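Section: Multi-chain targets

For targets with more than one molecule, the full set of components is provided together so that the structure can be written out for the assembly as a whole rather than chain by chain. Components appear in the order listed by the source. The example entry contains two components.
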Amino acid sequence: MLEAIAGRLLIAVPTVLLVSVIVFALQLLLPADPALALAGEERDPVAIAQIRALHHLDRPIPVRHLLRLAGLVRGDLGTSLETGLPVAELIASELPVTIELALLAMLVALAIGIPAGVAAAVRKGGTIDAAANPVALAGISIPNFWLGIVLIPLVSVRWNLLPASGYTSPFEAPVRILQTTIVPAFVLGTGIAAVMMRHTRNAMLTVLRQDYVRTARAMGPTERRVVGRHALRNALLPVVTLGTLELGTLLSGAVLTEQVFTIPGFGELVVDAVFTRDYPVVQGVVLCAGLGFVLMSLLADLLYVVLNPRLRT
Amino acid sequence: MATALAHAEPEPAPSLRLGRRLARNRLTLLGGTVVLLFVLVALFAPFLAPFDPIESNWLAVRKPPFTTFWLGTDELGRDILSRLIWGDRAWLLAGVLPVAIAVVVGVPFGILAAYVRGWVDALIGRLTEALLACPFLILAIALAAFPGPSLGNATIAIGISATPIFVRLARGQTMAVLAEDHVLGARAVGCPHRWIVLVYVLPNIAAPILVQATLAIAGAIIAEASLYFLGLGQQPPAPSWGSMLNTAKNFMSQAPRMSVSPGLAIGLVVPAFDLLGDGLRDALDPRES
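Its structure, encoded as tokens over all components, is:
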């Protein structure tokens, strides 16, 4: 098992390196000389030359990239042009908010998607199964930000249930935080719940047809035990693999959800940075998102090993 | 022997068979009809829109629907129906063009990787993986942000973000085709590479790519709406569903209906493409017949 993990880690390294190349290459898309962009109103050639030297813009592109990689290893993502703060610091302060939102959303997705998928598969052709397909299609097709926009007045204004926006740190008020995050998490989670439901239903249908399930049934336990203990555990394997593909959706969705509910997270950081032309921040966020995705894929692989005893030897 | 069999059982032309199989599935038919309808509306937007989508009318700000203005007006007194109709054009461009870019860029790279193998394959594979590792929307935001927000840049950004899937798909499909006996034969007798790709590979991988493209359009529409919603696409006052939703967000307590029609339009078109893609997949899969 250790070998498998080590192998997986080794494959992740070139991916992360290439992500950094892509992120770095984004700078080449700038319509103007980045030094001029950095200088802003200042058109003094000496100042521009200084900026050029400071950001190594006078060096060849591969050298520039190596210098940045070296900084990256030290945890240096550059400085924000807008605030002058280190990008790594900015990201570190916003990241917990997004992680919390994403985790809650994933919980919502799993809590809705898996039971619904199991219910649809166990009673194939029944009411739940018939309703599941159109509901899942709607869940996938409705942009989550639209759901958010529509839910804000309903939840906060009409039902007077939850504060529509704003963020509280989990350390200050744990109950309030659940209140403020549960609606955004629900909005973000529904689309993924729909995908999870589809995967779970398909996997369950395949597993329930297997011989060992029939054997398990023949031994006379309750149907609940057959489904829960024998079928679901095996059906979850492909769900984990396919669910990993949704991690990117989760991160992208978080950007939009944060924007709708004005939650000060990762997403807001990058959108604000785009409008203030704070390129180092944009690059830092993309890099972090890429790293996060690779890391989460690794975790999902590990989970797969935990779930599948055959891979443990 | 193949010709003898064909004579024994006369079959309709493949395209006719495909059409029949597509039509047999009612959901596919529904999806196809909705897509066609939206395409027609986009084509005839100038004739269908009752008002100018951009001109503001200060005497008719945020009017309710079912008056002179069927769907009401927005915060600048612009007719929502007209903006919806013209916005239909924007999505047609921003939904279809990125996918076209993704196919045109992705498929040749995928074929190249499968055909040449070796380090070229490894490089393309790793690059695809790295692109897939950057979350779709965040990459699109960054791609649209660096050259500056505009319709063209948003289109290219969505196109690039959608490319890796086509590279992977084309590579996998090409590998399968290249392993087939008739292709091995063609290579053995010395057919030029160009000929093999054009005559053997492309026609055989076209079906799954068409299916993926249909599904990718659904994804591109959502991505487009998302980018516009963030203000990174078509710049105001040009109408697009995403930017309409962005504006509607600010008026949710006074005029929640402003968000309903663009949301519904997206909610109709996206599943329609999904259904069409699913139907195409079933119809093109020989095992389903």
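Residues 1-6 of chain B have pLDDT under 50 and may be disordered.
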